[in-house]
Design goal:
Layout (H helix, E strand, L loop, with lengths): L2 H5 L3 E8 L3 E8 L4 E9 L5 E10 L2 E3 L2 H8 L12
Antiparallel strand pairs: 1-2, 2-3, 3-4, 4-5
Length: 84
């Protein structure tokens, strides 16, 4: 998959959780094979700190954008993975 094809994928918010020290919002593609989660730390004074994002292709998590972009090159949305 190219970056241009990835930019055309529609994502929807599927969950949100607000905990004492962190907030997390998860997004998933319409077919459920791609996703990402945005994590934001909550500071002691109630303000929010820096956010970070984890990416997902099928059931594999990528903690950096660079690793995700490298892996997405081999992703083919037309091939359905075999469940193990």
């Amino acid at each position: 998959m190219t970056i241009e094809e990835l930019n055309k994928v529609r994502f929807k918010m599927v969950s949100h959780i607000s905990m004492e020290k962190e907030h997390c919002i998860s997004y998933m593609s319409e077919d459920g094979r791609l996703g990402f989660c945005d994590f934001t730390r909550k500071k002691k004074d109630g303000t929010f700190g820096k956010s970070h994002r984890h990416y997902r292709i099928d059931n594999k998590i990528y903690e950096t954008k660079e690793a995700f972009l490298e892996a997405i090159k081999d992703f083919n949305p037309n091939i359905i993975p075999i469940k193990q």
